[in-house]
Every structure is written in C-alpha cells, then in structure tokens.
Amino acid sequence: MNIYSFLQAVRDKRPLVHHITNWVTIFDCAQVVKSFGASPVMAHAPEEADAMTSLASALVLNIGTLTTEVVDTMKLSAAAANRKGIPIVLDVCGAGATAFRDRKCAELLDVAKIDVIKGNSSEVARIAGLAVATQGVDAGEVSADLREVAVALSNKRKCTVVITGAEDIVAGQGKIYQVKNGHPMMANLVGTGCMATSVIGTFAGATPDQIPEAAAAGLACYEIAAEQAVKKSDGPSLFKQQLFDCIFRLDEKQIRAMQQVTAAS
Amino acid sequence: MNIYSFLQAVRDKRPLVHHITNWVTIFDCAQVVKSFGASPVMAHAPEEADAMTSLASALVLNIGTLTTEVVDTMKLSAAAANRKGIPIVLDVCGAGATAFRDRKCAELLDVAKIDVIKGNSSEVARIAGLAVATQGVDAGEVSADLREVAVALSNKRKCTVVITGAEDIVAGQGKIYQVKNGHPMMANLVGTGCMATSVIGTFAGATPDQIPEAAAAGLACYEIAAEQAVKKSDGPSLFKQQLFDCIFRLDEKQIRAMQQVTAAS
Amino acid sequence: MNIYSFLQAVRDKRPLVHHITNWVTIFDCAQVVKSFGASPVMAHAPEEADAMTSLASALVLNIGTLTTEVVDTMKLSAAAANRKGIPIVLDVCGAGATAFRDRKCAELLDVAKIDVIKGNSSEVARIAGLAVATQGVDAGEVSADLREVAVALSNKRKCTVVITGAEDIVAGQGKIYQVKNGHPMMANLVGTGCMATSVIGTFAGATPDQIPEAAAAGLACYEIAAEQAVKKSDGPSLFKQQLFDCIFRLDEKQIRAMQQVTAAS
Predict the structure, then answer these.
(1) Disruptive mutation site among B62, B98, B102, B186 for chain A (greatest number of A CBs within 10 Å)
(2) Fewest CB within 10 A of the end CB: N or C in chain A?
C-alpha cells in the first residue's frame, strides 16, 4: 500500500471533517485534522445538524462525554451523512464501562450506516458482544483473539472495524491490515485514541472509496509522527506538541522509511 | 496610535473579561486573556448570567459551538452588559455555514447593543447581507471589497466591525484601521480567530471609550507576538505555546519596532 | 510525613478518578491525573452517573462552568460515591462570585458527605459563611485568618478543607498542614487551581484512609514539579507543558530535597 498517496489526497482535497465529539479532547481532535492539512468543524446543535453535515466530507462521532441530547444530534447528523453518502466514523469510547454507553452505541449502529467502528480492545470487544469490561475509557482485559473479534464485527455490521493498541487492527471489506507503528508514550497522553479517530475520519473523507486502506494509512501516518515526536520530547505534554508538529511536517521519505503496515488474509 | 499605551491599560486595569464561548477553544480564549495580564471568566448558566456579567469589564460572545440554550444565556448576559454599559464583542463564528448560525447572530444583534462584530471575511460578509458561504468555520470566497463591507455593516449596526485575515480591517465610529501584523502560520492553528476575539474584548474592557482603537491595538499586540512566536517554533503546536509566552513577555520596544497599524479615511 | 510514599501509592494503584468538571480545563484535569500515573474519566450524563462512579476510586466535582443540569448529575454521582465509600473532592470554583454558585455548593454539601472542600481564599471563606467576594474565579480580599477559616469549616462540615495560595493550608481530622511549595508563575496559567483539585482526588483515591495527608502530599508533589517546570520555561504556556512532564518524571530524590510540608497543631 502506498501510504503517502493517502496523505497526499488529504493535503490536496483538504476535506471538511465534521465532528460531534467529547469535551475533553475536542481541541486536540480539531488540531490533529488541521495539522494534517484538512479542515475540522465541531457543532452539536440539532437545528444545524443537517446543514453542517451537508457541507462535510466525513463525519466523526465520539461518545466520550455523551449525553442523550448529544447522541440525538449524532443521529440527525448520521442520517444526513448517509443521505449525502459521506463516511461516518464512530469512536465507541467507554463502551464496556457503562450499560448506557453500550446502549447508545447500539442505537447509533442500528439507525445509521456506520462506515468505521473504532475503539480499544475492550471497547470493540464489548460492541462485538463479548462480556468484557472497560476501565472508564482505558482498555480492560480481553482474552479473545482481537483479529477474530474485528473480522466478526466487520461481517456482522458490514463496516470497517479498527482496534487500536500496541498493534492496530483494521478489518473491512474482507481485508485485514495491521499497523505496527506508534510508541508506548501515547498511552501517557489523554486523547491519543480520540485523535486517531479524527485521523481516520480525515483520511476516509479524502479517499471514501477505499475506507479500510484509508484507515490503515491514516493510523500509520499518525503513529509515524508519534515515533518522531517521542525523540524530541521527554514527557507526554511536550510529546503532544511535537506530535502535532511532526504531523504538520510529515513527508514522503519519512513515511516510506518508517511505515509498518502489513496486509493479512 | 500609541499601541503600547493600550497594552499598558490592560496590564494596569486587569479587566475581568466574561465569556460565553465555544467548547473547542475555551481554554485558549481564557489563557490568551490571562497571558495579557487580565482576568478571564467563563460561565453559561442562565441563573448567574446577570450576576457574573455585572462583575465584568467586557463580555465576549462566540457562537462556535452554539446551541439554542447557550444563545439564550448570551442574550441574558448581553442585556446585563448593556445595562452596566460594558462593551460586548460578538464573534460570528461559522456565520454563512448554516442558516441557524445566521439566524442566531441576527437575534443577538437585534436584542442587544453589540459593540464589536468580528469574524473572517465570509462570516462578516454574510452578516452584512451578502450571499457568500463559509466552509464550516474557515473563510469562503468573498468577491466584494472587504473595507466597504466593514464600513457598511458598521454604519448599519452602529458598531465597530472587525474582519480578520492576512490584513485585518477595523471599521467603527467613522474611522478605519488596517493591521498588517501576523503570520500565515496562524491559519494552521485551531483557535487563532477565537483568541483574537478574546483579545479585542480584553482591550475594549480596558479602554471602553476608544473601542475601534482598542480593537486595532489588541490585534496588533497579538499578531506581533505571533510573528515572534513563529521564529521560535517549527509547527502549529509549539507556535501556540510560544504565542502565549510571547504575549506574556511583550514589551514596548517590540511593539514600537514591529507594529503595522495604519489609519485610513 | 513521607511524601514520596503517597506518590508511590498513586503509581502502584493507578486509581480511576471520575470527574464532573468544567469545560475550560477539562483536558488539563484529565492529563494531570494521567501524568501522575493514574486513570482519569470524565462523564456527565445522569443515566450513567451511578455506573461510572461505581468503577472509580475517587470522585472530583468542580463547578467552574456549572449548570443546574450538571450539578444534578453531580448529586447522583456523589450519592453513588457515598454508597461505595470513595472520597469526594469538591472544588468550589467561583464561590463568592455569584449567589447561584454559593447556593449550588451548599446544596452539594447538604445532600452528600463531601470529603474535601477545596478553593482559593475567598472561595473557601465564602463557603465558611464570610461576606467576601470572588472576582470571577480569581481570589478576592479576605481579612480573616485563613487557618482559622479552614479549621472552622472543617469542624462544621466534618471534612478536610484545602485553601490554595502562595501557602496552601490543609485542615482535617484535627490536623493542619501547610504546603509552601509552588511558584508565582502558577497564577499566570489558567487551570492550576482545577488541576490541584484533580491531584487531591488522585492522591485521596490511592490513600483514602489518610485524606488530609494525601491532600498535602499531592499538593506538594504537584508544586515541586511546578518549581522544576519554571526553570525550564519562560512563560505560562511552556511552563504548563513542563509541569505535566515534570510530574511524569518526578522521583523520590527530588521530593525529599524540595518538599516544604509542615504540620501545625
């Protein structure tokens, strides 16, 4: 896979990526999109859900600080995205922590065609129906084979499934990709998972006809920048600043030298 | 115009700048006020709108992530600000993107005396009645002469109008100022527009009898710091940290050497 | 007091610290918890208040941008925390600025057993019943002896009381501690008070049987890191990044050399 060509598509098309996301990492979700050269927008009023989504090339939904009202707006935006035919990425943040989160994820998946389900291991395993627990928004133990979990959920929901972790799994359209880039420092920073979701939305918005590949390429670019950022920092906060700036400066040579994306059957 | 004297007024009076703003850049709006030596406060409960506004020297309204409920609180705070006679700055963020935003801006402008309307070119042009479109919160194409747009809206609404861009235009009380400070890197950072609005509110709060001049001086100080910050960073995120810190250290000599504010007829 | 042993307990137990907090500093509250090696979660939907709180080791409530609805969720979470027996820390942010804030603090203190009341001098003095005023969220003048205010409120509410300032006072269970670490630069950064509250929640969550000591130890660790961070920065924003990273790297030797915690009778 030519990872760089997906980054080029983002930079050339500058997709508008509409978000309905959480209040903790909302700035970081916007800035990661902007650092990649695309255009973020965040809005959650039901009255403009349709109009704002209609301007966008992708829709990112993240339930990190969900309320019933905000999920209701997500449903309106998801319907608009489906009508327009733009990809929807759903971060099932905190699924497996409370029954409320599980139920709201199920509602979103039932009322709209979601193109990408994304979460950590226990979040996605819970959405796939396993009896696992998430510790707030941090992954809990999952004994099942994650690749099998991703494929089963992809088949059940007819969508791409992304499980992030030390090794990311992307399963969709009968294909599986593994992304081995990244660094353990990412676990010390709040929001690395949310930002990954916004990156997937950005790349899917630029290349909507190749969603599994766009997701894998976006994760690889984001995590290659993270590997570079670790070298320029000695703690999570300066790491974050360098992460944005390494994304901003990411070039073809770096991607070709560092990318660790493999396809499995 | 003695730009530094306006900064001195901010640092001497330390105005309390009350905000009802968006959830994406709310920290940055607060920190930019604090970096200038003033005191920010953010609150959006209708029950305390009157009391909190009564403590303040300026009110900043920003519709970036508006809802009907939050705009209702803005109306209460605006009424309190008008009663007390403190300046109100309205960032018409995303006007021209959705009809809902246009309508809510019109409501705010109709129910309260707004002292400064601020936005990018397509946002302000839409408020002025032109048929232009905003791409989410990023400026769209405007073919009209921006100076004429600003003057016409200033005359119509009896207020100061600020259009930010590569060159900022400030029109009010029959005067026009241009601010040519700043740097293209600002466009790579989420929130530079929102922060500019908070800066205008801070300077207007310190010098409420010279609002157009305070707005121009505030923008010049902010953008001079941005020019310095670019030299100390190589991407948008470290630029942001340096921006706050260059504002914090801004001195008279830098302002005199770097300011590019001109008055037009 | 062996300050380092409290930090060790945090790093060993990695408590899940649930927050219902304000929208301005919500990221910073999460990141400070994570930088100490613990696990933050933020959620404010009433439907999951009970379930999310039941997963946690401590509950942090911060009324910085309160609404009636969010305070109602705080009450549900506080009830769940009391049932489970985990500590609750309440930041009375902005008490003394509006009657609404005073009333909501009183309601929270009346319906739940709060373990730690924390604020700046005028906020805590107002909760203690004095006729003082807070300037938005910045401390106003208090002529009373702060130590006496803290002890009186601690006795009245049967809880630990923390007043932050150039010198922090911790009064609880018949004991008083003073923490003299910290740096004036903290006053130039938005959120240092909110982060202090999250730190107290984190340490109380790890050592719930010694809440006054945990509060004093947490403040000392946080402020020792601040003293280190000041040396690596020249303005509030780079100070903040260094603060997170100095917390992340904090070690026993630094704590032993720098801690300024004293017990009074």
Answers:
(1) B98
(2) C
- Cα angle vertex A214, ends A209, A216, to 5°? 145
The answer to whether the CB of A48 falls within 8 A of the CB of B101 is yes
Tokens representing residue A187 in the block: 């676990």
Question: Is C188 close to B30, i.e. CB distance below 8 A?
Answer: no
With beta carbons under 8 A apart, name residues in chain B contacting A52.
97-98, 136
> Whole-number mean pLDDT of chain A?
97
Radius of gyration for the alpha carbons in chain A, expressed in angstroms and rounded: 17
Pull the structure tokens for residue C36. 């100490």
Coil vs helix vs strand at B19 = strand
Instruction: Judge residue B145's burial from the number of C-beta atoms within 10 Å of its C-beta, 0-12 exposed, 13-18 middle, 19 or more buried.
Output: exposed
**Residues of A whose CB is below 8 A from B95:** none
Yes or no, beta carbons of B24 and A16 under 8 Å apart: no
- Say what the pLDDT of residue A264 is: 84
Residue bearing tokens 């008070």? C193
User: Strand, helix or coil at C174?
Assistant: coil
* pTM for the whole structure: 0.98
Interchain contact, A23 vs C42, CB within 8 Å: yes
Q: Give the nearest chain C residue to A242 (CA atoms).
A: C241
Give φ, ψ of C57 to 5 degrees.
Answer: -105, -10
Q: Domains in chain B, start-ordered, CATH in brackets?
A: 3-264 (3.40.1190.20)
Average pLDDT in the B124-142 region?
90
What is the tens place of the pLDDT at every residue in B168-185?
999 999 999 999 999 999
On the question of pLDDT at C265 being above 70, the answer is no
